[in-house]
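> forwarded from #structure-qc
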C-alpha cells in the first residue's frame, strides 16, 4: 500500500506534482481495490468503519484523470 501514510485523500494524489499520470492511476486503483476488498470483508462480518465515501472519492479522482486525457 504505497499510498498508506502518505496520502489522506485521493485528491492529494491528484494534486501531487511529483507523480505522473500513470503513477496516479496506479495508486488510486490500488487504493480502490484495497477498499473494495475491505468492504467485502465487512460484508462477511468483519468489523471496521464504513469506507463507502472514500471509495466514491477514489472513483471521482480516477474519472478526473480519465477526463484529462480527453480534454
Amino acid at each position: 500500500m504505497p499510498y498508506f501514510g502518505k496520502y489522506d485523500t485521493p485528491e492529494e494524489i491528484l494534486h501531487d506534482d511529483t507523480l505522473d499520470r500513470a503513477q496516479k492511476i496506479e495508486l488510486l486503483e490500488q487504493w480502490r481495490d484495497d477498499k473494495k476488498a475491505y468492504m467485502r470483508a465487512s460484508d462477511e462480518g468483519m468489523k471496521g468503519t464504513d469506507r463507502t465515501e472514500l471509495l466514491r472519492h477514489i472513483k471521482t479522482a480516477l474519472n478526473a484523470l480519465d477526463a484529462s486525457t480527453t480534454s
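QC bot note: The chain has one domain: 10-70. The mean pLDDT is 82.
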